[in-house]
Write a structure and sequence with these properties.
Layout: E1 3-14, H1 26-47, E2 53-63, H2 64-80, E3 84-88, E4 92-94, E5 118-120, E6 125-127, E7 135-138, H3 144-155, H4 164-174, H5 180-183, E8 190-191, H6 200-206, E9 215-217, H7 224-236
Parallel strand pairs: 1-2, 1-3, 8-9
Antiparallel strand pairs: 3-7, 4-9, 5-6
Helix pairs in contact: 1-7, 3-4
């Protein structure tokens, strides 16, 4: 059994199916995400305890939403081979030593997303606490029933929703009778929603200052070039300022 960090970096033809249409910036996005991949893998090797290997799946697909579906199956194939899997979007990175592997027995995400709650009429589902899927952990001990639910929802994909995969992963996580309070740990997946890592808005959303974070997800789809610059800054100098917050979940 190996502990793997897994990501994806697909070349896509149609860039209109991100959250917004990114056709005009397609070439820049590809360059930026290639550089993000390097930062992700370098910082993972440096900081993730127990990491044995890194797998970045590559290929071609029509659009980013198709990539989500393809990669769901690729992760499952690796899991079936007997690996513990820490998945990260390419716009994620690690800032200090951190443990995921063999720390949790069930499928996990670690922090809320924006918006923090949502409803999906396609699936007839509501999440009062809506978690971000940019960093997630698949232990060998997670139940096959969780995967079965994911595949059932995958076959009934919502084509009109940008974050359909995130809906599926929230359904999978909460099907384990795991509470939001039990899953919530922003240190393991700090959400950099605003461009300045030290912004009060980032601190308020995460309930911790970024200096306390071990891993950060930079939401590169909002502006890949700007967020790549922030990744480079963080790789070279982790913020040190601290501010006290109590975790509110």
């Amino acid at each position: 059994m190996s502990n793997l960090l897994v990501g994806k970096n697909y070349k896509i033809k149609d860039h209109s199916k991100w959250f917004d249409d990114k056709t005009a910036n397609a070439n820049q996005i590809e360059k930026d995400y290639a550089s993000m991949e390097t930062i992700l893998t370098n910082t993972a090797r440096k900081h993730v305890v127990g990491l044995d290997d890194i797998v970045i799946h590559k290929g071609e697909a029509d659009n980013i939403r198709d990539v989500f579906k393809i990669h769901f199956k690729q992760i499952h194939e690796l899991w079936e081979q007997g690996h513990n899997i820490l998945y990260c979007d390419l716009d994620a990175m690690f800032l200090k030593e951190v443990e995921y592997f063999e720390r949790f027995d069930d499928f996990r995400m670690f922090n809320l997303t924006d918006p923090t709650s949502t409803t999906d009429d396609h699936y007839g589902i509501k999440f009062n606490d809506y978690f971000n899927c940019g960093i997630r952990y698949y232990p060998q001990t997670m139940s096959n029933n969780v995967w079965d639910l994911g595949f059932e929802m995958l076959e009934n994909w919502n084509p009109d929703r940008w974050d359909c995969e995130q809906i599926i992963y929230n359904a999978m996580m909460f099907s384990q009778s795991l509470t939001a309070q039990e899953a919530y740990d922003p240190r393991l997946s700090f959400q950099m929603l605003y461009d300045n890592p030290n912004a009060t808005s980032n601190t308020q959303f995460n309930q911790i200052h970024i200096s306390e974070a071990c891993a950060v997800h930079l939401h590169g789809s909002r502006n890949s070039h700007s967020r790549l610059s922030r990744m480079r800054d963080l790789e070279n100098s982790v913020p040190r300022e601290q501010q006290e917050f109590s975790l509110y979940l």
